[in-house]
Amino acid sequence: MEQPGIVVTGVSGRMGQMLARLVLGSDQARLVGAVERTGSDWIGKDLGQAMGGAANGVIVTDDAVSAIAQAQAIIDFTTPAATVGFAELAAQARAVHVIGTTGLSEDDLAAISRAARHAPIVRAGNMSLGVNLLVGLTRKVAATLGEDWDIEIVEAHHRHKVDAPSGTALMLGEAAAQGRNDALENLRTPARDGITGPRAEGSIGFAAIRGGDVVGEHDVIFCGQGERIVLRHLASDRAIFARGALRAALWGQDKGPGEYDMMDVLGLTS
Ligand SMILES: NC(=O)c1ccc[n+]([C@@H]2O[C@H](COP(=O)([O-])OP(=O)(O)OC[C@H]3O[C@@H](n4cnc5c(N)ncnc54)[C@H](O)[C@@H]3O)[C@@H](O)[C@H]2O)c1
Ligand SMILES: O=C(O)C1=N[C@H](C(=O)O)CCC1
Hints:
By secondary structure, the chain is an alpha/beta fold. It has helices at residues 14-24, 47-50, 64-69, 80-93, 106-115, 129-144, 167-179, 184-187, 239-251, 262-265; strands spanning 5-9, 30-35, 73-76, 96-99, 120-123, 150-157, 188-189, 204-210, 216-223, 228-235, 258-260. The strands form 2 sheets. A 6-stranded parallel beta sheet has the order 2-1-3-4-5-11, with helices on both faces. Helix 5 links the parallel strand 4 (96-99) and strand 5. The longest helix has 16 residues, at 129-144. The radius of gyration is 19 Å and the shape is elongated. It binds nicotinamide-adenine-dinucleotide (NAD) and the ligand O=C(O)C1=N[C@H](C(=O)O)CCC1. Keywords: Amino-acid biosynthesis, Cytoplasm, Diaminopimelate biosynthesis, Lysine biosynthesis, NAD, NADP, Oxidoreductase.
């Protein structure tokens, strides 16, 4: 059986290049398209040469419609506006859409849900095995500890990251809220500034650090009386996200239309 053909979007980006190299080196999938935004100086170039290596015959294109039409999967770590457009194209192609993009609005998520009526979408703010294990641990610890334990989530990322808090931090916050039989939207306290008044009881606080080349660090801190518990994930190589994304693209090949996440892909659903 022929290996699934994968299109990587945002191919000149930090994740895009990591994903292209992973798929090109895989014996389970074929790279059949490399898409970048119109105006990118990678358009029309050979991908291998653009990434600083030997030519590989894959030409970078901004014609997402043609590229996606013949794909079995799209791996998409770009921007919210781009991802919404790719979701529509993936749906038309009945191709698996793996969405790593974060910072999606409620409207963006609604558009993605509509697209998921026609094709499988695997979306996760963090596609690493470690973080998805931490999500389960966070839910369990939040469920075990009482409301008198204050939950704070602190994350750090590189200087180029444009959204905050991270998608990972929001995943962890949602898991903590679920552990308390609630939803994050009811408990979330954004980054604090000014005279904030005392901490709202039962809230989940967030803080974000940006600087340097930090790949991704997350602490879920349970603050008690006389003690604290810290659940921590430290990422040092973007390859962990790329491996999760490729695994999701392959996992989705025999799935029906719908919205899935990495807990489904990794078999971690409780
Ligand atoms: N889910 C995860 O595991 C995970 C891991 C890492 C990063 N991310 C997320 O992935 C996204 C990208 O991160 P990054 O560090 O690679 O960013 P980046 O800025 O390095 O790469 C984004 C790429 O998308 C391209 N792009 C933008 N609009 C486009 C369009 N319309 N068509 C094609 N390409 C387009 C940009 O030109 C750029 O090359 C961010 O939202 C980040 O939070 C998620
Ligand atoms: O580098 C980024 O940007 C990352 N984004 C994801 C997030 O927003 O959580 C995953 C970690 C790296």
